[in-house]
Amino acid sequence: MHSSMGTRRVLVTGCSSGIGLAVAARLAKDELRRFKVVATMRDLKKRGPLEKAAGDSLNKTLEIKELDACCEASIKECVNSLPNRRVDILVSNAGVGMIGPLECQSIAAMKELFDTNFFGLVRLVKEVLPDMKQRQSGHIVVMSSVMGIQGLLFNDVYSASKFAVEGFCESLAVQALKFNIKTTLVEPGPVMTEFERKVYEDAEMMDLSETDEETAKIFREVYLPYSKKVFTSLGQTTEEVTEQTLKVITAKDPPLRHQTNRLYTPVTALKHADPTGRLPLDTFYKMIFKHDNVLNATLGVLRMLKSVLRTKKIQPKL
Ligand SMILES: NC(=O)c1ccc[n+]([C@@H]2O[C@H](COP(=O)([O-])OP(=O)(O)OC[C@H]3O[C@@H](n4cnc5c(N)ncnc54)[C@H](OP(=O)(O)O)[C@@H]3O)[C@@H](O)[C@H]2O)c1
């Protein structure tokens, strides 16, 4: 069956919680029944919340399979188990976060993060791309981040992993297009998921003895409260990100990049406005270290704007 005429098979990674879970359940419940969802997770013992969210669609338009993005064999086994190994749409979503002073993070932990966030994507693409090329159709959708465009204080390694994701996809997209395969980087700002809880939990337990006192203080007393404020002021729900991912997937001409949070767009626009990099650097520096009041006022306005946009159900245009 040609993908444009029938149901499209979507493989989603990291469906035990958060965005992956919400995207998988939403696509499976599509009123137009356009998708067959292969919702994957590395630990099937965590399937409960997804089963609950899937409801009646479970084992009809949604099946749950095991897939560890850090294991080539696991990815192969999952794809091999699908009829004709067919994946029309890959949603590479599995990812982990990491915040804190660099001196307190081990190289081993950084490598682990890259293994999931970057090489996890590379492994998946290596597995599905040849078949997509052969069929001359497919869509690779990648859960990136605004931190793949603009780095953020104490997110050095996480941001670097998303920059790697962006560079990889931007490069590959040209070749893929020659085979009629579309590529989309979905770039959320802060989203209220387990992700946030996990990174803050790690931050609370972090041994800061490896860094100097001033850095530790900046991390604890400036960055963490700042970051929590940003989450409460700008944070989106998984439903909001999911609706926009659905739009990207069903778009006739999907974009290479899609930022889900229009409140965050001015931040990333700074980067494009000044190729020397001074403008975003100075802005972030002043925002974090000099103008706490300005930041608080701005976040207050943004909070208000967010609720207006929500009430009016205004979403960014594709
Ligand atoms: N939340 C945000 O603020 C935010 C913002 C921008 C972008 N993102 C991106 O959105 C994606 C989803 O994050 P989320 O917010 O939904 O966080 P989440 O609730 O923590 O979900 C992350 C998912 O990735 C899975 N995962 C981790 N390592 C894996 C591996 N090796 N193989 C397969 N699955 C693995 C986790 O599974 P386990 O339960 O087994 O750990 C979990 O299902 C990530 O790529 C993240 O970088 C998040």
Quick gist of this model?
53% of the residues lie in helices and 12% in strands.
Identify the overall geometry.
globular
Q: What is the CATH topology descriptor?
A: Rossmann fold
What would you give as the CATH superfamily? NAD(P)-binding Rossmann-like Domain
Strand order of the largest sheet: 3-2-1-4-5-6-7
The CATH class designation is Alpha Beta
> Strand fraction band?
5-15%
Class computed from helices, strands and strand pairing? alpha/beta
In this entry the ligands are:
NADP nicotinamide-adenine-dinucleotide phosphate
- Total helices: the number is 12
Structure report:
This protein has 318 residues and is of the alpha/beta class. The chain has one domain: Rossmann fold. The chain is built from 12 helices and 7 strands. The protein has helices spanning 18-28, 48-54, 72-80, 107-117, 119-135, 156-178, 194-205, 213-234, 238-250, 265-273, 278-290, 292-311, and strands at 8-12, 35-41, 62-66, 89-92, 138-143, 181-187, 257-259. It has a 7-stranded parallel sheet with strand order 3-2-1-4-5-6-7, with helices on both faces. Helix 1 runs parallel beside helix 2. The two termini are 28 Å apart. The structure holds NADP nicotinamide-adenine-dinucleotide phosphate (NAP). The site of NADP nicotinamide-adenine-dinucleotide phosphate has 30 residues, from helix 1 and helix 7. Residues 13-14, 16-20, 41-43, 46, 68-70, 93-96, 116, 120, 143, 145, 188, 190-191, 193-196, 198 line the site of NADP nicotinamide-adenine-dinucleotide phosphate.
